[in-house]
Write a structure and sequence with these properties.
Shape: elongated
Radius of gyration: 20 Å
Structural class: mainly alpha
Strand content: under 5%
Largest sheet: none
Number of strands: 0
Order of helices and strands: HHHHHH
Number of domains: 1
Length: 147
Amino acid sequence: MNRKESPFFVTILSAVALILVVFNAIRFVTALLKWDLLLSLMPDPGPLYITITGALWALGWLGVYLGIFFAQRWSGTAFFVLSFLYTSYYWLDRLLFQPYTERSNAPFSLILSLLFFVSTTIILALPKSREYFYDEYEVETTPKREL
């Protein structure tokens, strides 16, 4: 299979997706290995929640990574949607399931979340990124006129 070479910033997006795959896979495996500890420290929502969300996010980001790697048309949109969902999930999880946690790093987390989402939007709007994700291989439909 002949694969398109990705532009620099698309490579950055694929690296981010791969990092998130690894992070969430580690979260999944760690929750399985430290089940009893998590149950004693955080009975609500518990290790089952951490395990399921870790697995789902790892699989979701793996799909996006593979889509970017193989230059699938849907992968740019999928990255955008998944980054919005992941950022929303982060904040909902933080506010709903960690209500008594000390929040001294909340401004930093907010800035980092906004930077992640804005940079994703900008990268996907760049001409080379749009070409990589949304343009088909150019196939000429009209015959050339010979002189």
